[in-house]
Design brief:
Protein-Tyrosine Phosphatase, Chain A, 10-stranded mixed β-sheet, Rossmann fold, globular, 6-stranded mixed β-sheet, 16 helices
């Protein structure tokens, strides 16, 4: 297998599993990253140029690999074009993932939000009870130190990304759906199109486990099994919160309306409790006793870039988060404010104030959800906006951070909002506008998460 863009979070997981299983693997990526360096150490041959010469080198060495691409690789990519000219087999990464899912009993985790966290929690619980699953996750799983793991157990856990619709290829034994709402408007023609795709994914799974608290799922999807964090009656699994703090959740677990036991989740926020409830339900459906699972709960940690504390700079706690959809931003800010108000947090000291930093991701998403972003971003003490991270898109008229700032000002005139010209300017704004004991929360799926090394340099 040869991966064009092998350093990507989804591609590198697949490459790692294949090389761990003894397959010859190569790839290309112009970026020199810890991920690509680790792949090299594992035996992956990594080229730093995505040119025709890379394919020629492989052909001259007597290889005719299957070439794996992702949706992020444009049709104009010269390496891809030369692979086609050489008549090499071209697979989309979803084709390879589908093949791996077919090889063993699999849990595929889909949904608009929380799928990386939920698949990470399932993987962690299974590791803690000795199941040693194969894992293919779109984020770094803390207990593995990696996004890919070639386990020796019977199960495979995979994150099923809906952004390009390719998850309809997967035929998992259990499909878990966290929630559903409109996103990826660069691919989908509205919510009906997205719902249709998720139904096709669900129909391809042997069983479906879904979140009953999501109104769209409840109305539009027929699931075999449901979970909830708001009601124990009428669902198969539930975890009702007994106490929500800034560093943990105390909850009671129910199965088919009957209490099974209490547990402490070492993650704050109702959204994390929902993710964990889905993970517990999936493991229970695999026959793992609840008491064994509870013992593994203490090891649960979120994946990388999910409320990821990077360090403390001059008394300010710098945290990265992947939130880039209005619902994700709203949930992340609510969790952060709980840390401020409760005096409890996973940070070294409880924060006294919340300074939010947000980088809109894609012009199309910014345009589609401008009002929703303006509403979600109000729940902070001060707000800094980075320029839109285009992710390859061309700018759209009015879809910019200044327009977003103007909308926020109309909704909450007394909120301090500043718009940065670039990341250097953003770093200066953080230095000048933050205070000691602030929680500086950088949210986005682009390069805003480079704030910490800029501050600490």
């Amino acid at each position: 297998m040869h991966f064009i863009g092998v350093g990507g979070i989804g591609m590198s997981a697949l490459a790692r599993i294949l090389v761990d299983r003894g397959h010859p693997v190569s790839g290309s990526d112009p970026r020199d990253t810890p991920t690509s360096r680790k792949l090299t150490q594992l035996g992956v041959r990594v080229f730093q140029q995505q040119t025709a010469a890379t394919i020629e080198t492989l052909l001259n060495d007597g290889q005719r690999p299957i070439v794996v691409i992702s949706t992020a690789i444009p049709a104009s990519n010269p390496e891809l074009n030369h692979a086609r000219e050489a008549e090499l087999d071209i697979w989309h990464r979803s084709d390879l993932l589908a093949a791996l899912i077919d090889q063993q009993p699999s849990i595929a985790v889909a949904g608009s939000h929380g799928k990386t966290t939920t698949s990470t929690l399932i993987t962690t619980l299974l590791m803690e009870v000795g199941e040693d699953p194969t894992a293919i996750i779109g984020g770094i799983v803390p207990c593995l130190g990696s996004n890919g793991h070639a386990g020796h157990g019977r199960l495979l856990v995979a994150e099923a990304d809906e952004s390009d619709g390719s998850l309809v290829k997967f035929r998992a034994r259990l499909g878990l759906i966290t929630n559903l709402e409109l996103d990826h408007t660069d691919h989908y023609n509205g919510l009906k199109d997205l719902i249709s795709t998720m139904r096709r994914f669900a129909n391809g799974c042997d069983r479906v486990l879904a979140n009953r608290d999501c109104p769209i799922l409840q109305e539009q999807l027929q699931a075999d099994t449901w979970w909830s964090v708001t009601e124990a009656n009428g669902v198969d699994y539930a975890a009702l919160p007994l106490q929500l703090d800034g560093d943990r959740c105390h909850a009671r677990f129910f199965e088919r309306g009957e209490p099974v036991g209490d547990f402490v989740l070492p993650l704050p926020g109702l959204h994390n409790l929902s993710n964990a409830t889905g993970a517990l339900a999936a493991c229970r459906m695999e026959g793992i006793p609840f008491k064994r699972l509870v013992s593994g709960l203490t090891a649960l940690k979120p994946p990388g870039r999910r409320f990821d504390w990077r360090g403390t700079w001059e008394g300010r706690h710098i945290v990265d988060d992947y939130a880039h959809h209005p619902s994700e931003v709203k949930a992340t800010l609510a969790m952060a404010q709980l840390m401020v108000s409760s005096g409890c947090s996973p940070l070294p000291t409880p924060p006294q104030r919340l300074l939010a930093v947000f980088q809109p991701h894609r012009y199309s998403r910014t345009q589609e959800f401008l009002e929703s972003f303006a509403s979600a971003l109000q729940n902070c003490d001060s707000l800094l906006l980075a320029p839109v991270y285009g992710a390859g898109e061309e700018p759209l008229n009015g879809a910019c951070s200044q327009t977003l700032a103007d909308r926020i000002h109309l909704l909450k005139p007394d909120l301090e909002v500043a718009v940065a010209d670039n990341l250097d300017h953003l770093t200066d704004l953080v230095r000048n506008r933050s205070r000691r004991e602030d929680l500086v929360l950088a949210m986005g799926a682009g390069d805003v998460n480079g704030l910490w090394p800029r501050l600490s340099a």
